[in-house]
Design a protein that fits this description.
single chain, alpha+beta, OB fold (Dihydrolipoamide Acetyltransferase, E2P), 4 domains, five-stranded antiparallel β-sheet, 38% strand
């Protein structure tokens, strides 16, 4: 059987002026419908009986067609794709083929910008066509090989102000950066380095942008020292400063700021002054 949206190995059944026609060995015996690999994509020296690895999609006339090109995403998978056009009916994405991939409005989860990349999944719609969706949670698995404190790479695909940032780890596994761990300003489509802080019973991953506490204090202390030096040795921030201001100035939480300041005070590298801190 020839499968839409998948890479598969097919046999060259016959040649024509427009290319070669392919099929599986089983369908060849049954007399099933062949699929065309256009002439410009036929590898040099190809002959009847050869096996070629191709991707199957539909052309502008809704006919099955083969390509030897590697797409950026295949059926049931997710990938980061760039928006090349936005129209009244939806968006079109670059997925590595001449015919762009369609992303219907109903499958969009946010306002898109032309030229930006978004994480999408590939599925077959009710009209038996390949389509993109930004509703990728059902594509993500919960059987990752990771354990607590492992570092991984992930792409943020959605942000909820009350819950945190939803992440696709390795473009495969479901993860969440809880609200309290979401330090800094991020947006969907960003790739981030993350530490696993918990593997839940259901296999989902809780993630952090920060290192273990004792290592993170050292890093935060270095950030504060650097900022002090950039500001002539003084910083108008202290225990009474608002969390929002601390985050804006240092990209860290108020709790992290207080811990790092405590470390620097203990080491006598800084001292308190009215309204802030100063290098000793």
């Amino acid at each position: 059987m020839i499968n839409l949206g998948e890479m598969q190995k097919l046999e060259v059944k016959r040649e024509a002026s427009i290319g070669v026609f392919l099929n599986t060995k089983e369908e060849n015996r049954r007399g099933g419908e062949d699929v065309l690999l256009p002439k410009k994509e036929v590898p040099e020296g190809t002959k009847i009986g050869d096996t070629l690895e191709v991707f199957i999609y539909k052309d502008s006339e809704d006919r099955l067609i083969a390509t030897t090109k590697k797409t950026k995403v295949t059926l049931g998978e997710i990938g980061l794709l760039r928006v090349v056009d936005i129209t009244r009916i939806g968006a079109f994405l670059d997925w590595g083929l001449e015919k762009d991939l369609f992303l219907p409005f109903k499958e969009q989860t946010m306002r898109l910008e032309k030229g930006k990349e978004y994480l999408i999944g590939l599925y077959i719609d009710k009209s038996d066509r390949l389509c993109a969706t930004m509703k990728i949670r059902d594509f993500l698995r919960t059987d990752s090989p990771y354990k607590r404190n492992d570092w991984v790479k992930g792409i943020i695909y959605s942000i909820n102000d009350e819950i945190g940032a939803f992440v696709a780890v390795d473009n495969k596994y479901e993860g969440l950066i809880p609200k309290k761990e979401l330090i800094g300003v991020y947006e969907p489509g960003e790739e981030v380095d993350l530490r696993i802080i918990k593997v839940k019973e259901d296999g989902k991953l809780d993630l952090s942008l920060r290192d273990k506490a004792y290592l993170q204090i050292d890093k935060d202390a270095e950030i504060i020292l650097k900022k002090l030096k950039e500001n002539g040795g003084m910083l108008v921030l202290n225990d009474h400063s608002s969390p929002k201001r601390i985050r804006r100035e240092l990209n860290m939480s108020k709790s992290a700021f207080k811990k790092a300041v405590g470390r620097l005070l203990k080491e006598r590298k800084i001292k308190f002054i009215e309204g802030g801190i100063k290098l000793s």
